[in-house]
Design brief:
- There is one protein chain.
- This protein has twelve helices and nine strands.
- It has helices at 20-29, 33-37, 47-59, 73-81, 93-107, 118-134, 149-161, 177-184, 209-216, 225-239, 245-257, 280-287, and strands at residues 5-10, 40-44, 63-67, 85-88, 110-111, 140-144, 166-172, 219-223, 265-270.
- It is globular, with a radius of gyration of 18 Å.
- The model has no long low-confidence stretch (mean pLDDT 94).
């Protein structure tokens, strides 16, 4: 990576440990007092859950959060600590999402979609505004992708400020629905997902996010679990900073594709740090399968 200046946007240091508090807060602030009294509901891989739970607590609304059964315990406990009701359903976000829609129909609570909502996207876009305010020389920004809400907000903001800035998305190779949809120019839905980056393990691209991504995002790449794990270990060892799998995806992509990314000033979004500490031995083992990154 000789010749590149790299800038990290450390969303893992947010109050809830991830960027999701931005979109959740902005969305809830658009609701009427009556809607807030009726409560809010959502499904999440974990970080959106904490964002909604914390925002709801601040605004006095009752929050119900559906998450997959395999969600890291740290994310579940943190969501409960913010006062939300947590319901665990299914093996992935998709099953939790479908169950949450059924509950929403039964209760009439306001639905706060984790990514396929324009207000949520707008809230996430504030990341780009802050990055470019802090460093206006950035020519490339690398962003993790699950359902696409984060990169939709960031890419829209970036391209309206400076269309020459490249926005590159990153997905885990075991959950690459958006990558496949983007490159094959058709919607690709996955039957299953398998990755240590549960925060971006989404089976279907967002209906609202995909058109935005096709319009504003320059490229989408994938990284393996071994590459993600190596990025996590690298940041722990070199910078004493904890990233979760989704948050490490952007750094993993820079390590993997740095020769193909012609950037002098490269920004990357470290989207979250809510890693289940019990996963560290497995992460270390996965990282060990790769050769050590060059110093």
């Amino acid at each position: 990576m000789v010749g590149k200046n790299v800038y990290f946007k450390m969303e893992n240091q947010q109050k809830t440990g991830a960027f999701k508090f931005r979109g959740a807060t902005f969305k809830l602030m658009q609701l009427s007092k009556e809607q807030l009294r009726n409560g809010v509901i959502t499904a999440s891989a974990g970080n959106h859950a904490q964002g909604v739970a914390y925002a709801a607590a601040k605004l006095g609304a009752y929050a119900t959060i559906f998450m997959a059964e395999g969600t890291p315990l740290a994310k579940i406990n943190a969501t409960k600590a913010y006062g939300a009701e947590v319901v665990l359903v299914g093996e992935s976000f998709q099953e939790a999402y479908e169950a949450s829609l059924k509950r929403q129909r039964d209760t009439g609570a306001a639905y706060i979609h984790p990514f396929d909502d324009y207000d949520v996207m707008a809230g996430q876009g504030s990341i780009a505004m802050e990055m470019l305010r802090q460093e206006d020389r950035m020519d490339t920004i690398i962003v993790p992708i699950g359902g696409g809400g984060l990169i939709s907000g960031i890419s829209t903001a970036v391209k309206h400020i400076n269309r020459s800035i490249r926005v590159i998305g990153v997905q885990a190779s075991g959950a690459a629905a958006m990558h496949e949809s983007f490159h094959h120019n058709k919607v690709e839905n996955l039957n299953s997902v398998q990755t240590i980056a549960e925060g971006i393990a989404v089976k279907q691209p967002g209906k609202r996010t995909l058109p935005i991504i096709r319009k504003y995002v320059d490229d989408i790449v994938t990284v393996s679990d071994e590459e993600i794990a190596s990025a996590i270990v690298y940041m722990l060892e070199r910078n004493k900073t904890l990233m979760e799998g989704a948050g490490a995806a952007s750094l993993a992509a820079l390590f993997k594709y740095h020769e193909e990314i012609p950037s002098r000033h490269c920004g990357m979004v470290i989207s979250g740090g809510n890693l289940d500490i019990g996963m560290l031995p497995m992460i270390q083992k996965l990282a060990g399968r790769l050769n050590s990154f060059a110093s």
